[in-house]
Each structure stands twice: as structure tokens, then as C-alpha cells.
Specification:
11-stranded mixed β-sheet, 8-stranded mixed β-sheet
Length: about 1050
């Protein structure tokens, strides 16, 4: 930090400017800024660490599956089985190395994606306004702040306009603090941090107004950095240390220490690390480990607890067979790749939990402006009571020279008797008497900018509604920059989401000050006293409201403009807003058109086909909201305004807020559109949906949206126009603010969930088959009455790690199934381990176990002598010839069956030959081949795993000493028969699933099988309509 002669809050603006060696007008030169960053460091807290290679390494070593393998290796070395122990150790190293490389790459990718969503700072450098990432701020930078921004560094304010910040994070003060840049404190005063009203602190939130200031402290030199430096632990458990003055201190201290001990034990075991699904799988790993111990005890019990090396090796084999060693690593890689795919679809995932949750979303609560609509608004119609209408026709939202303006002279006194009049185009765009106040309010009660860039194109910055008004006034040469040459801003009252209006106090040269106001029609009208030089009585008020309804029914967002003259001067900072915004003169209604995005209608339709209800929560007028909702299909086009369903489909925020929870719960369905929606209405809507067991995604962009984003199951912030606070509260960020991107995210979430189910099933069926094989294998005794394992420990590890792992990774990369958005959302409370998946796991695992046992029995007893020799679990000799050859055949059967399942689980229902389930009339061999090889990673993984079998069987020493099997010849015929039978049985099981899943079939088994990713989760069009719109009319399916 730059050394200052006096603390910054004691310094005047001019003194601060000199001490920090900067210019308020032009800011720092870019070169100076970079030099200061090099000298004082980036604007980061030390807790903002990058990717730690050591952390990733320890996560790989200490995950549940790896711990189990380490224990297995220790047991192998303990029984002097050096080869098995060495192989297990090699697999541990391989697993850790592969997992480390993949996760390190994924973490680097995620780190780069997070930077896309990092807070931005608006600075002046080299005399130009720039937007930079906040960590690139330097001491002396001139920063500009507006409502919704997070203050990026500690700042000495130099200009404030109605500026307030929320400093609860720093001071604990619950109310926003009003700031004053001109305040200077005496050096003899003791000024607490919370009373330094000429400073804005890093990480505080701008709740009102605008400001400009000089950054005087960055990174760990900020006030919040000092707090961060003093913190030792981040987990809440460490803040629960008991108070020594408590009478039960010793007892509470023991409890506290026990909780800390449990925390670290869980952390070491991985039970409180990662996403909820990763934690569930870690628990699964330990449950399986306990089962493995039980099975090992069974092995020893079968040998009457005479535990020799042979018995120990068999117990180790059985224990290893039940552990899916690569499950956690495959899941982590799949999630990381899913996050990367999301970014390609314009969605940044801030929290991995959102990836798991997105596929189960049942309801989307979306804003309208800029999300469902384009957010590029055009002033379409203007109604001036004393004149009539102005109609603008243009397709360019930013260019004031494009399009035409037409008029209809129809004062409000003649509206009742007026007939449709023709539009008269204005050839010469000049302001007339009645239009002048409209243009001044549109331009001056406005924070946007409209200008021509270097390329000669019209560009605009600001809120879309204000841009539309600014462009309209610029058509008549009433641009804000032009008017500010003759007008002085005395006071600004920014737009407030509760009041729904904005106003400014302006003074033109020596004239009296005037108040210019704009906002929601009802909120402006309630502050008006006159209209067109007449009192605003009940009749005229109704006339205005009727005109508003007419404009809104055309899909226009309607604003009201008002003004008043003030015949006195005062200290405007001290005047209450209520007094300034009173006794106004109603000037005009402005109808602004925000066309829906071209893709919104299809996206809404896709949601409906997927069984997802779409709710539109907007601040617009009910008629405007209804028109847009009908246009994009949120409200079905066949529902007329007189339909009884319309009464619950569209409500206003005040109407919804007035209902009790019981009244809302008694509604047959929650409304699809809430107009005039306030922030608290969004929170109430989420709670209402949660009581109906809905899983909710909520969009938001403003500071006030952060509570609803936090309350939603999936909070979605806007990347382009969203505030930093909203982004920080969200789970995902849309980089294009587009509703269709939400649908893309849900589709990607469903794809990831489907693929997790696929590779979990693929990994677990081999474990089930191996356990069945080895448990039954206890019955096969040699001449010393010791069990001979049909598969050796190394064979099991090879199947679980090499044969299964890489195809499982390939399954994690599978494309979405064609019907993925034709199914109902899955139940996130159930998760991956559905009854259906367990049925499939048992069925396929049992098939693998039976086929491998049949192979063993046929080779040993049908074609062999039935002689199991002695010590065949330890080493090869002539007496073990049949056993070793039979093991080779069993190893091949298990391997090939697992590889076949790599293709079979691509779809849980459809045949291997017709994975998409198209009509067999359309089926061709070319289609079959394309579908089979479209996932190149999966194909190569299966091909290489298949090829790896032969070296393990035919390379001397490796086959007999490592894998405990031998080269085979005629046994390949037995292997082929077993694999073909397995394939036939697998196809038959799928056929049974498809048969049971037909609509006319009933029964518990059908209901169980329908709870997975199958066509059973689809509904007919009639049922979908009832689910979404509570309709009872007959619609053909």
C-alpha cells in the first residue's frame, strides 16, 4: 500500500489525490497501474488460492477407494504374497497418477471458468472508462460504483450521488450507510470504521446510488483483508469453542474436542469432502469395505478359522472383488468434463452440486426482461393526454436516426368519441410544445448513454428501458449529453424496487428547479395531482389506466412520466423523497416493446415436453406479462382471457403476497405469471413450490434477488447484466442471459445424471458377478481341503481397474439420449441408486456370476479331470494345469461380459442393435454401426481393454506368476459360448424391461423398472397438459 502522511479519511479529496499520485479526471496511466500491481501485488485475499497440486494429490491418495486398496496391499505384503501386493501397489500408483492428472487439468479448467464469473471493476485509466477484473485494481485507480456492485477495494470517495453501502459484512451494521464524499474528519477525532462516511470498503455492497472514488488499499491491505488475516479456521465447528467462564466448561470442552476429532476423521476418510453425490459414493465405499470384511470372515469361517496364506489370499480376493476401485475418480472426471461442457453452452457452473441438481428441476422461475425477451427495448408508442399518440417503427434499438415516427392527433377529451384515425408520418422530427416535457424527462431522468463508436455504429450502455427512452429523445436532438449543457443535476433519487420509480431534480440555467419522474404507472399516478392542466380526478385517472391497459395488451411495457416545477431553492440532500415526489403533473404514458428472443418459444415448449413448469416473475404490468407469456407459450395459446384457469395462471405480486400459506397450498396449481413482482414475492414463490415438493431453479440479476437465489435449489444469475451480489449468491451464471441457456443447462444436467447412472451400473455389475463367483467358489476345495479361487486377486483388480475404468470414463462422455427432454425430471431425493438400478445391477451381475461359474465347472469337471491340485492359489505346478487354464477362461468371460455391458448400458431399455429405439423399418446396418462408434473414447477404451486380455494370457511368467493363469486353446470355445449366452440373456432382460414398460401393463415390478431413465417416465400429451396447466379437456395423444 502506498504510504500516506495521514489516514485517508482525514484527507480532503484534493489531498488524497496528491498522496495517491493520481488524477480524478483521467485516472492512472495503464503502465503506472501495472507497475503498482507488480509492486503491491494483485487485489486478492490470501484465501483466494489457485489450484493446489498437493491438495489434489492428497485427495487422490486419501479417497475411500484408495484407502481400501492400500489396506489390501498391506494385507498382501503381510501374507508374503509379494506379487499380489506389488500389483495392487502398482494399481494404486496408476490410479493416483491418472486421477491426479485428470483432476489437475479439470481444476485448472474450472479455475479459468470461475474467473469468467469473477467480480468486475469499472475504472478510469488513460482518461477512458474500462471494465477490468477486480483483482487487477491498483492503488490510485479511479473506480466508479453503481447500485448492485460489490466494492472491489477500499476507496476514498470523491463524488457521491445518493450513495449508500451495506457494510454488514465488515461492521455488523444491519442498515445501509449513507456516504458523503465531501466529509472530512479532524485528526483529533477517534473515528470508528463504520463512521468513516467518506470511504467505501472492499466487499461491501452498493445498495443505492452512484459514486466515484480513489482506490487507496487493495488485497490484504484492505479492512476486510485484515479480518481475513486474523482468521485461522474456516469451518463453523472451530467457532464453537466453549467459553472458559461457563460453569460446564470442562464438559463442553470435551464435547468440542470430540467434534473436532470427528471432523478431522471424516475429512481424512473423505466423508465431508466433495459434492453430496461424491459423499454418498464415499459412504458406499466404506459400506462395501465392511461387507468385504464380512466376506473375508466368511472365507475364514469356511476353513474353520485355520488361516493359512492360501486362506488369506482367498479372503483378500473376495474383499477386493466387491470394491469398485475407480468409482470416485471416474465421477470426479465426469463432473469436471460436464462443467467444461456447460461453459461451451454459455453456462458457468460455480458449484458442482448444481450439476447433480439441474437434471431434477421441476419448476423454473424466470425473469422476463433480457431472459425470455431480448432485453433490447424500443419505445414503440407514446400517449400524451393533451395531444394524442406518437408511434415509432424501427428495428434498430440503438440508432435514433433509423425508422419512422408517426402521430395521431387525439387529445384525451376526444378519446371517447374518436374513430380510428390514420397515422401521419413526421417528416421533420422537431419537438413541439406537448412533446418537450416528454423528451426532457426521457433524457434527464435517465442514466444510460447513447453514442457512435469508432466504427461508426450506434452503441448504448445502461438499463434497456432507459436506453429505449434515451434513443427516443435523441431522435429529436434531446440527448442527455446535449441537455446537460444547459441543465444542472441538483438531486437524484434512483430507481427503487419497492417504490418502482426514479426521479431527478434538474435546473435549467436561471429557471426554477423541476422534478422529473418516471416509473410504474400505478406508482407514478399515485403521486400526481394534475393532468394536462386539469385536476387528476377519478374519471381522468380511469382514463389513464384504460390507456395503460390498451398499451399493455399489445405486449408493451408501460411507464408513466411526470413533472413539477419548484419555486424555491433548498439543501436538496435534506429533502425527503416523499416531499419531492408529490403533487406531480402527469405528462405521458410510454409503451416500450421488448420482443421475445427467437429461441424462447421453443425453449419453453421443450420445458413443457420435459414436464418442467415455467413461471414468469416480472415487474411489468399484468397485461404486458400476459401478452409475452402467451407469445412464448408459458400460457397455452388455446386458453382465452375468459377461461376460468386464467384466474390462477396470472396474479400480481401484491395479490400473491396477500395470500396465506394455507390459501396458496389450497390452490389447484401455482400461478404461471406474477406481474408487479417484488423480491419478497420471489422468495414466497420458492417456499410455496418447496411445500409442493418441487425442485426449483430461480433466475435473478439484482441485489434484491440474492435471497431468492439462495433459497432456490438452483440459483441462476445473469452474466451480462447481473450484479456481483447476484452472481455470488448463485449456483450457475448464464453468460448470455438467455432463457434457452437455462434449458441447455437442464439438458446437460440430465445427460450427466444419466451418464453417472450408466457408469455406476457398469462398474458395480462386475463387482456383483465377481462376488457371486468367489462366494460360490468356496465350495471348490483342493486335496488339502482349501478353497481354490476361480479368479485371482490380480485378475479381479485388472477387471475392476483396467477393463472397467476406461470404458466407464467413456460412458461419462456419452451424448444425451434423443428423448432426454421428453422425460419427467428425476427425483433428486432418491439420487442415482434407484430401485431400478439395483434391479439391473443384480440381474446383470448374477448373469456374469452364473456364466463365469459355468465356464469354471465345464472346463474343470466336464472336459477336465476335476483335479484341483494343491497350493494353486500360490504358484503354478503341473498339478494346477487345469485350474490355471480354467482361470484364464473365467477371466476372459468376466472381461468380455463387462466390455459388452459397456455398449449395453448406453441405453437401459433399447437393444444393443437399436440403441435409440427407432422403428425397425427405418433401421439399417449403417445406422447401427454409426451409433455403436459415435463415442470414440468408449470404442477405443473397449477395444484396448479387449486387446489387453491376450498379453496377460500368453506372455510367460506374467501369466503364471502374476495373474495365476495359463495359456488356453480349446477353452476359447467355452468362453465364446458363455459370452454369447450372456449377450442373449442381457438382450432378453432388456426385452422384459420394454415389455413391462408398456402403458397397459400394471404391477409393482413395472413401477419399479419405470423409475430409471426409460420411456416410462414419459407422459401422454393429455397427462402432460394436466400436469402443467390443470386442464381436463380431451387432447389426442
Amino acid at each position: 500500500m502506498l504510504k500516506l502522511k495521514n489516514p485517508i479519511h482525514f484527507s480532503s479529496i484534493e489531498d488524497a489525490e496528491i498522496q495517491l499520485q493520481t488524477s480524478v479526471q483521467s485516472g492512472l496511466p495503464s503502465q503506472t497501474a501495472h507497475e503498482r500491481i507488480s509492486e503491491y501485488g494483485e487485489n486478492r485475499l490470501q484465501s483466494d488460492k489457485g489450484v493446489s497440486a498437493w491438495n489434489i494429490f492428497f485427495r487422490q491418495v486419501l479417497n475411500a477407494m484408495c484407502v481400501v486398496l492400500i489396506l489390501a496391499a498391506a494385507l498382501s505384503f503381510g501374507t508374503t504374497d509379494w506379487i499380489e501386493g506389488g500389483v495392487i501397489s502398482a494399481i494404486i500408483v496408476l490410479n493416483v497418477v491418472v486421477g491426479f492428472v485428470q483432476e489437475y487439468k479439470a481444476e485448472k479448467t474450472m479455475d479459468s471458468l470461475r474467473s469468467l464469473a469473477s467480480p468486475m471493476a469499472h475504472v478510469i485509466r488513460d482518461g477512458k472508462q474500462e471494465t477490468i477484473e477486480s483483482h487487477m485494481l491498483a492503488p490510485g485507480d479511479i473506480a466508479t460504483l453503481k447500485t448492485g456492485d460489490v466494492v472491489p477495494a477500499d476507496i476514498r470517495l470523491v463524488e457521491t450521488i445518493n450513495f449508500e453501502t451495506d457494510e454488514a459484512l465488515l461492521t455488523g451494521e444491519s442498515l445501509p450507510v449513507v456516504k458523503n464524499a465531501r466529509a472530512v474528519f479532524d485528526t483529533s477525532e477517534e473515528v470508528p470504521v463504520g463512521d468513516r462516511i467518506n470511504l467505501a470498503y472492499s466487499s461491501s455492497v452498493v445498495t443505492k446510488g452512484r459514486a466515484t472514488g480513489i482506490c487507496y488499499a487493495t488485497g490484504m491491505n484492505t479492512e476486510i483483508g485484515g479480518i481475513a488475516a486474523s482468521l485461522r479456521q474456516s469451518h463453523p465447528i472451530f467457532s464453537q469453542k466453549p467459553d472458559p467462564s461457563d460453569e460446564n466448561y470442562k464438559k463442553n470442552l470435551k464435547t468440542y474436542r470430540f467434534r473436532v476429532f470427528l471432523y478431522y476423521v471424516k475429512r481424512i476418510l473423505g466423508l465431508n469432502v466433495g459434492t453430496p453425490l461424491q459423499q454418498k459414493l464415499t459412504v458406499l465405499a466404506y459400506v462395501l469395505f465392511i461387507i468385504a470384511i464380512v466376506l473375508a470372515i466368511v472365507v475364514m469361517a469356511a476353513h474353520t478359522f485355520h488361516v493359512s496364506n492360501e486362506v488369506s489370499i482367498y479372503a483378500i480376493s473376495l474383499g477386493i472383488s466387491i470394491i469398485p476401485e475407480s468409482l470416485i475418480a471416474v465421477l470426479s472426471i465426469t463432473m469436471a468434463l460436464g462443467q467444461k461442457n456447460m461453459s461451451a453452452r454459455r453456462v458457468i457452473v460455480r458449484k458442482l452440486e448444481a450439476l447433480e441438481a439441474l437434471g431434477g428441476v421441476t419448476d423454473i422461475c424466470s425473469d422476463k426482461t433480457g431472459t425470455i425477451t431480448q432485453g433490447k427495448m424500443i419505445t414503440r408508442r407514446v400517449w400524451i393526454p393533451s395531444f394524442g399518440f406518437l408511434v415509432v417503427e424501427t428495428s434498430s434499438p440503438f440508432d435514433p436516426t433509423a425508422g419512422t415516427v408517426s402521430t395521431v392527433h387525439q387529445p384525451m377529451e376526444t378519446l371517447a368519441n374518436a374513430k380510428n384515425q390514420k397515422l401521419e408520418e413526421m417528416k421533420d422530427l422537431r419537438a413541439f410544445k406537448e412533446l418537450d416535457p416528454v423528451l426532457k424527462i426521457s433524457s434527464l431522468c435517465n442514466l444510460s448513454t447513447v453514442s457512435i463508436n469508432k466504427e461508426g455504429n450506434w452503441v448504448a450502455k445502461g438499463e434497456p428501458t432507459e436506453i429505449a427512452l434515451h434513443v427516443f429523445s435523441s431522435r429529436f436532438n434531446y440527448g442527455r449529453e446535449e441537455l446537460l449543457k444547459s441543465h444542472k443535476l441538483l438531486r437524484e433519487y434512483p430507481f427503487d424496487s419497492e417504490l418502482k420509480r426514479m426521479s431527478v431534480v434538474m435546473q435549467e440555467k436561471e429557471s426554477n428547479p423541476e422534478v422529473y419522474a418516471k416509473g410504474a404507472v400505478e406508482r407514478v399516478l399515485e403521486r400526481c395531482k394534475t393532468i394536462a392542466a386539469h385536476p387528476l380526478d377519478h374519471e381522468r385517472r380511469n382514463l389513464v389506466l384504460a390507456q395503460m391497459e390498451t398499451l399493455a395488451s399489445q405486449g408493451l411495457r408501460v411507464l408513466a412520466l411526470a413533472k413539477k416545477s419548484i419555486h424555491y431553492s433548498t439543501e436538496w440532500e435534506a429533502v425527503p423523497r416523499e416531499d419531492v415526489e408529490s403533487n406531480l403533473d402527469f405528462v405521458s404514458l410510454v409503451g416500450i416493446y421488448d420482443p421475445p428472443r427467437a429461441e424462447s418459444k421453443e425453449a419453453v415448449n421443450l420445458c413443457h415436453r420435459a414436464g418442467i413448469r415455467v413461471h414468469m416473475l416480472t415487474g411489468d404490468h399484468p397485461e404486458t406479462a400476459k401478452a409475452i407469456a402467451k407469445e412464448v407459450g408459458i400460457i397455452p395459446p388455446y386458453i382465452s382471457d375468459k377461461d376460468p384457469n386464467m384466474s390462477w395462471m396470472i396474479m400480481t405480486g401484491p395479490q400473491f403476497d396477500a395470500l396465506s400459506d394455507q390459501e396458496i397450498d389450497n390452490m389447484k396449481a401455482l400461478c404461471l405469471v406474477i406481474a408487479r413482482c417484488a423480491p419478497q414475492t420471489k422468495v414466497k414463490m420458492i417456499h410455496s413450490l418447496h411445500r409442493r415438493k418441487a425442485y426449483v431453479a430461480m433466475t435473478g440479476d439484482g441485489v434484491n434477488d440474492s435471497p431468492s437465489l439462495k433459497q432456490a435449489d438452483v440459483g441462476i444469475a445473469m452474466g451480462l447484466n447481473g450484479s456481483d451480489v447476484a452472481k455470488d449468491a448463485s449456483d450457475i451464471v448464464l453468460t448470455d442471459d438467455n432463457f434457452s441457456s437455462i434449458v441447455n443447462a437442464i439438458e446437460e444436467g440430465r445427460r450427466i445424471f444419466d451418464n453417472i447412472m450408466k457408469f455406476v451400473l457398469h462398474l458395480l455389475i462386475s463387482n456383483v458377478g465377481e462376488v457371486i463367483l468367489l462366494v460360490v467358489g468356496l465350495a471348490f476345495r483342493d486335496i488339502h481341503h482349501l478353497s481354490v479361487f476361480p479368479m485371482s486377486p490380480v485378475e479381479i483388480l485388472w477387471c475392476n481397474m483396467i477393463t472397467s475404468s476406461f470404458p466407464s470414463m467413456g460412458l461419462g462422455m456419452e451424448k444425451a439420449q434423443p428423448d432426454i427432454m421428453e422425460r419427467l425430471p428425476h427425483d433428486n431425493r432418491v439420487g442415482v441408486f434407484t430401485k431400478s438400478l439395483i434391479f439391473d445391477m443384480i440381474a446383470y451381475g448374477l448373469l456374469i456370476g452364473v456364466m463365469s461359474l459355468m465356464t469354471w465347472v465345464v472346463i474343470i469337471y466336464a472336459f477336465g479331470t476335476g483335479n484341483l491340485g494343491y497350493d494353486c492359489n500360490s504358484y503354478y505346478h503341473d498339478g494346477c494345469r487345469e485350474v490355471f487354464r480354467a482361470r484364464s477362461a473365467v477371466f476372459c468371460v468376466v472381461t468380455f461380459c463387462v466390455l459388452i455391458m459397456g455398449f449395453e448400458v448406453k441405453n437401459f431399455d433399447n437393444s444393443f442393435f437399436n440403441l435409440d429405439g427407432i422403428s425397425w423399418r427405418e433401421w439399417t446396418f449403417g445406422y447401427f454401426f454409426r451409433k455403436l462408434v459415435e463415442n470414440r473414447f468408449l470404442v477405443w477404451a473397449i477395444a484396448l481393454a479387449f486387446a489387453s486380455v491376450f498379453p496377460t494370457i500368453y506372455i510367460p511368467v506374467i501369466n503364471s506368476d502374476v495373474f495365476k493363469h495359463k495359456s488356453i486353446g480349446w477353452e476359447w470355445g467355452v468362453v465364446a459360448v458363455a459370452v454369447i449366452l450372456f449377450f442373449i440373456f442381457a438382450e432378453s432382460w432388456k426385452f422384459i424391461r420394454r415389455t413391462l414398460s408398456k402403458p397397459h401393463r400394471k404391477g409393482k415390478l413395472r413401477r419399479t423398472l419405470s423409475r430409471t431413465i426409460t420411456s416410462q417416465s414419459k407422459l401422454s400429451e393429455t397427462d402432460l397438459e394436466k400436469r402443467l396447466f390443470i386442464q381436463s379437456r380431451n387432447v389426442p395423444s
